[in-house]
Design a protein that fits this description.
Blueprint (H helix, E strand, L loop, with lengths): L9 E9 L1 H10 L7 H4 L10 H5 L1 H8 L10 E9 L7 E14 L3 E9 L3 E10 L31 H5 L12 H6 L9 H16 L7
Antiparallel strand pairs: 1-3, 2-5, 3-4, 4-5
Length: 215
């Protein structure tokens, strides 16, 4: 199967079971302070909505197993998340996955994978360096509209945070293996984009005066 043939491929369904330990680990991995008790303590525990992105990674892994590209040379380029309802603090979430689009970026390809569940719809953009050039649809240009910033925040992260975050489910070796990171053009293993998303969502919630679990 070629990369161009991936568009429209159904990835099946998957039921993910998790417990409160997984929910608390995720909260800590995106920098939640221990003073936010209802995110890091099993009493009255709530689940951050961005945990959905970790739950849906099974579909990204399934796409990589189709044989059209080397998953170790793929990079997570974009993420969309639509929240339909809260995730339980423990339980099972049934999801379906499919590859919705494959875009030809000339020097690379971009594969979009959609995961749907009753609680959320998550779309992963997977960038494949060197796999474009077949003359397909280039897709959206991806240039963000320029806006004036209302707030600006700087959030320091621990150099070892990627080693913790990968325990939430994203075990791509680019985040832990120096050799794989170097093969992808990085000086060292990089922090997960989904970790940055989880951190940013908490910060935005704080600026908005909202609970992070209510986004």
């Amino acid at each position: 199967m070629s990369v161009a043939d991936l568009a429209g491929v159904e990835l099946g369904t998957h039921a993910a079971s998790y417990d409160d330990t997984a929910v608390m680990l995720y909260a800590l991995a995106v920098g939640t302070p221990c003073t936010d008790l209802d995110l890091v303590y099993e009493r009255d525990l709530r689940t951050l909505p961005t945990y959905a992105c970790a739950l849906g990674l099974w579909a990204v892994e399934a796409a990589g197993r189709l044989g059209a590209y080397d998953p170790t040379r793929s990079l997570h380029a974009s993420q969309r998340l639509v929240v339909h309802g809260p995730l339980p603090a423990a339980g099972e979430v049934t999801m379906s996955g499919r590859i919705t689009h494959v875009y030809d970026k000339q020097k690379a390809a971009l594969v979009e994978i959609e995961v749907g569940a009753a609680q959320f719809t998550a779309t992963y953009g997977i960038f494949l360096p060197g796999r474009g050039g077949w003359g397909g649809d280039r897709g959206p240009d991806g240039i963000a509209e320029k806006v004036e910033l209302d707030r600006r925040s700087t959030v320091p992260t621990d150099p070892d945070l990627a080693a913790l975050y990968r325990l939430t489910g994203d075990r791509h070796p680019v985040h832990i293996d120096p050799d794989v990171a170097a093969a992808n053009g990085f000086e060292r293993p990089i922090l997960h984009g989904l970790c940055s998303l989880g951190i940013a969502a908490r910060v935005v919630a704080g600026h908005a005066g909202a609970h992070a679990a209510d986004l």
